[in-house]
Specification:
The chain has 128 residues and is α+β, with helices and mostly antiparallel strands. 28% of the residues lie in helices and 36% in strands. Strands 1, 2, 3, 4, 5, 6, 7, 8 and 9 form a nine-stranded antiparallel sheet that branches.
C-alpha cells in the first residue's frame, strides 16, 4: 500500500512540475508598460489585451495582433498611424517596431516585463 501511495504522490508532483505552462497572459493582459532606455524626448509604451497590443512608438500610435504560448510570443506585423516627427525619433520608432515584430519571449519581472527578440535583445518595460 505504501508503494502505491508513494507512486501516486510522485506522479502528481511530476505532473505539477512539467505538465503546466506558465500563464504569463494572466499577468500581463490589462496592463500597460513603458520602455526603458528611449531617447529623453520620447516615450514608448505597450499595452497588452487578450490578443492585441498597442501603444505609443515615440511619435505614432501602433497596434498589432499577437499570440502567447507559455512565455513564447509571436507578434504580427504592427500597423501605425503616419505622423512625421524628428528624424531621431522616427529612426527610434522604426527600430522599436522591427524589434517588436521579432519578439519571441516574454518574461515577467518584478518591475514589469521583458520582451526578448529572436536575436536575444531585451526590451525592458516597467509597469505604468
Amino acid at each position: 500500500m505504501k508503494k502505491i501511495v508513494l507512486f501516486l504522490i510522485t506522479i502528481v508532483l511530476f505532473t505539477g512540475c512539467f505538465g503546466k505552462k506558465e500563464d504569463i497572459g494572466s499577468q500581463i493582459i490589462g496592463n500597460a508598460y513603458t520602455l526603458q532606455g528611449t531617447l529623453p524626448e520620447s516615450q514608448i509604451d505597450i499595452a497588452f489585451e487578450k490578443d492585441k497590443i498597442s501603444g505609443s512608438s515615440g511619435v505614432n500610435r501602433y497596434f498589432a495582433n499577437y499570440t502567447l504560448d507559455g512565455n513564447k510570443i509571436s507578434v504580427q506585423e504592427p500597423g501605425a498611424t503616419r505622423m512625421m516627427g524628428p528624424e531621431n525619433l522616427m529612426t527610434q520608432e522604426q527600430e522599436y517596431l522591427k524589434k517588436l515584430k521579432d519578439s519571441k519571449e516574454v518574461e515577467v519581472t518584478k518591475d514589469g516585463v521583458t520582451v526578448v527578440t529572436t536575436s536575444g535583445e531585451k526590451l525592458n518595460f516597467v509597469k505604468k
